[in-house]
Amino acid sequence: MDEGLGLPQGAFAKIDAQEDEIFYEPPRLVCHIDDGAIAALTEFYRVTLPEGGVLLDLMSSWVSHLPPEIDYAEVIGHGMNETELAANPRLTRWFAQNLNRDPKLPLADASVDAAMVCVSIQYLQQPVGVLREVARVLRPGGPLVISFSNRCFWTKAVAIWRALDDSGHARLVERYLRHAGFERIETSQLAEWVEDVSDPMTAVVGRAAAM
Ligand SMILES: C[S@@+](CC[C@H](N)C(=O)[O-])C[C@H]1O[C@@H](n2cnc3c(N)ncnc32)[C@H](O)[C@@H]1O
User: What spacing in Å lies between the alpha carbon of 80 and ligand 1's midpoint?
Assistant: First the structure.
């Protein structure tokens, strides 16, 4: 299923086609990007996410990369591994759910002020279905920040992601957001790639449309 994106057949196939629960069963209390990329993302969150708002950190782990000095009303976490989510000090509550099996979020319409998906979008096999759900739970105008680098769990990334380079990834994420009904889509290069020195970091932001 290509969700009307006009992508080739097999675009969402993974090398490791086993259930995702098997791959994500061992907790990984590691950082998936380097310190410079994290600092750049945190600074981007500082100016993009509303202070005091309700946030949804979708596809999270034990870190959310939020600015430490800013308080939010709630940070709702979602991921695949309960040990990782329980270890995340920023989350006020969380739930585990395989979005490749069930994209429906257990959250009310227009109940979230901003949402984030960090270094994880490449694992979604129904990205438009999931992002439509994010649009549903966001209040109108609320931002969704999708960030990514050039590293990933290769066997779990979908084929279309594996076929593209960094700028192709940005175009693909923009396309996901457009098809999910997001507006005012903007891409920012947060950190540059320098071979063996620094990880690149890109953020694509879309705003939820009025219902
Ligand atoms: C590389 S980690 C990134 C974690 C975190 N966002 C970070 O910045 O460190 C990839 C995450 O994608 C999420 N993920 C992968 N496959 C998923 C699936 N099928 N359903 C839901 N979440 C999934 C898991 O939460 C996993 O921890």
Answer: 6
Q: Tell me how far apart the alpha carbons of residues 192 and 207 are, in angstroms, rounded to a whole number.
A: 25
pLDDT tens by residue, 9-67:
999 999 999 999 999 998 988 787 889 999 999 999 999 999 999 999 999 999 999 99
User: From ligand 1's centre to the CA of 127, what distance in Å?
Assistant: 13
Tokens of 159: 């084929």
Task: Check residue 1 and give its pLDDT.
Answer: 63
Angle at 82 between CA 76 and CA 87, to 5 degrees: 70
Cβ-Cβ contacts under 8 Å for 63 (sequence gap 6 or more)? 31, 88, 90
Spacing, Cα 119 to ligand 1 middle (Å): 8
Ligand 1 contacts (CB < 6 A) are 20, 24, 32, 59-61, 63, 79-80, 98-100, 118-120, 123
The minimum-distance atom of ligand 1 relative to the CA of 64 is: 8
The structure's pTM equals 0.97
Shortest-distance Cα residue to atom 16 of ligand 1 = 123
